[in-house]
Amino acid sequence: MASVLVINSGSSSFKYQLIDADSEQRLASGLVERIGETTGHATHDTSDGHWERSLGIPDHTAGFGVMIDAFAEHGPSLEEHPPVAVGHRVVHGGARFFEPTLITPLVLINIEDLSELAPLHNPANVEGIRAAQAAFPDLPHVAVFDTAFHQTMPADAYTYGLEASLAERLRIRRYGFHGTSHEFVSRAAADFVGRPLAELKQIVLHLGNGASVCAVDGGRSVDTSMGFTPLEGLVMGTRTGDIDPAVLLYLQRKTRIGVDDLDDLLNKKSGILGLSGHRDMRDLTRAAASGDETSRLALGVYVRRVKRYVGAYLAELGGADLIVFTAGIGENSSVVRERSLAGMQSLGIEIDSNRNAMPNDGPRIISTDASVVTVLVVPTNEELEIARQTLRVAE
Ligand code: ADP
Predict the structure, then answer these.
(1) What CATH class has 195-382?
(2) Spatial separation of the C-alpha atoms in residues 6 and 18, rounded to whole Å
């Protein structure tokens, strides 16, 4: 019963899933966190139960030891479900990696080199890869990049209106993120409506803590709202999304704010948190429904930005067959879905309020039968997509 181990590594934590290679069932998942702190923490989940453990975990290598112990103690047994490959989520593949890639020493050097573009993420991914290679030295390790799916964007979609030689020298362009999710969801949506992916124009709305929109034409990303970094585009949980860059110059001149504080302000203290004090969409919609004006404004700003991108991508694609909501907010917030697409009947988009409000965990249609554009909710599963792509490379 072959399996694939999927690793998503951060600087002081990593998440893992063991996925059956044939049935694609999740056999176990877990989180090893607070690596390097006095007391680390690990959780391990299987169909039989949930386990937690607190202990010192000095580094990622020790973390993999903790994970292997959890499999040995609580199952499933790695002997009975031997991993045939390890798939790693890697945030930034730059313009170099446009598909899942077997990790050789040279590939690892290239991923490290891209740390300049993703200083918070790529070094942590590399650390996870090194530790996993030490724990599973005989297995193929595969990197699956968040940016790869968007490498099909045409140059006029990924180029900024910035002085060209400078942009080229410093590799400043739009890369896009959440590619694994946009790829998985656009394919799953095509399967669900029973139409060939190659024939469909789709707008995929990945609305989680981080959020991005992708215009998918025939299964290929042709534009996406995140850019050089995951800060561009939609208003997010704690990120501004699009903002006039002159605001940053003004802030620097006016308040003498330093670069690191500015980074914090834009990435961690803004978005719906900065607007309303609520980080979680559940709290925001509840507060807005109870009449809190600040929360109503924040929700209004959030959904208007989603609508603006839907309009932009309808224009870029020349219309859409499918609009697909996914991720924490997209899958669960009927309010955000309804308001983001409200008043677009003349563009062929009509949500069915009853279908939209019906709670359901699976893929479903939420537009009316008369709607020209079919609107769907499709749960994302980035780990499964990483496992599939890993197997494709490793086999
Ligand atoms: P991440 O980007 O961290 O993977 P998720 O895709 O899990 O995030 O999305 C997390 C967000 O989903 C939460 O911040 C929360 O706002 C939102 N969310 C989860 N459940 C609901 C719900 N029932 N209603 C509205 N929003 C929800």
Answers:
(1) alpha beta
(2) 6
Q: Would you list the domain boundaries of the chain? A: 3-145, 195-382
Which residue from 329, 333, 335, 378 has its CB within 8 A of the most atoms of ligand 1, so it is best to mutate? Answer: 329
Check if 332 has its Cβ closer than 6 Å to any atom of ligand 1: yes
Q: Which atom of ligand 1 is nearest to the CA of 237?
A: 14
With contact defined as beta carbons under 8 Å apart, do 377 and 338 qualify? no
Read off the pLDDT of residues 155-168 as tens digits, 9 standing for 90 and up.
999 999 999 999 99
Domains 3-145 and 195-382 fall in the same CATH topology: yes
Distance from Cα 346 to the centre of ligand 1, integer Å: 30
| Residue 219: Cβ-neighbour burial (10 angstroms; 0-12, 13-18, 19+) | middle
> What is the 237 CA–ligand 1 centroid distance (Å)?
9
Does the domain made of 3-145 have the CATH classification 3.30.420.40? yes
Residue 317: which H helix or E strand, with range? Answer: helix 293-317
Spacing of C-alpha 227 from chain mean position:
13
CA dist 321 to 193, 216, 225, 246, 351, Å? 10, 10, 19, 37, 14
pTM: 0.95
pLDDT tens-place string over residues 281-333: 999 999 999 999 999 999 999 999 999 999 999 999 999 999 999 999 999 99
